[in-house]
Amino acid sequence: MKVTGQCHCGNIRYEAEVDAATVRVCHCSDCQRLTGSAFRTNVATLPGTFRLLSGTPKVYLKTAESGNKRAHGFCPDCGTPLYATSPDPNPASYGLRVGGLDQRAELPPPARQIWCRSALPWAMDITRIARIETQ
Question: Which domains does the chain have, with CATH numbers?
Answer without folding.
Answer: 2-120 (2.170.150.70)
